[in-house]
Amino acid sequence: MTNNKELGKEKINDLIILFKKKEYFQIEEKIKYLKKDFPNSIFLLDLLGISLVKLKKYKQAVKYFKKILNIEPNFADAHFNLAIIYKLINKINDSIIHYNLCIKINPQKFEAYNNLANIQKEQKNNELAIQNYLNCLEINPNYKIAIKNFGICLQNYKFTITSTLIEKHIINLLEQNKILRPVDIINTIIGYLYLNPKFKKITEKTNEGYLLEDTILEISNMKIFILLLENTPITDLKIEKVLKNLRSNILLNLSSIKNRQVALKFTQSLAKQCFINEYLYPINKDEEKILTNLEQRIIQNLKDNQFNNIDLEVACLASYNPLRVYGFSEKIKKIKSILDLINQQIYEPKKECDIKKEIISFKIKDKISLDVKDQYENNPYPRWNKIALYDSPNDIYNFFKNINIKINYNQIRNLEKINVLVAGCGTGQHAITTSSKYKNSFVTAIDLSKKSLSYAKRKADELGIQNIQFVQMDLLDLKKLERKFDIIESVGVLHHMDNPLKGWKRLYEFLKPNGLMMIGLYSKHARKHINQIREDISKKEIEVSEKNIIKYREEIISSSDLKFNIIKKSTDFYSLSSVRDLLFHTQEHTFTIQQIIRILNKLKLKFCGFENKEIVNLFKKKHKDINALYDLDLWHNFEINNPRIFAGMYQFWCQKF
Question: Is the pTM of this model over 0.85?
Answer without folding.
Answer: yes
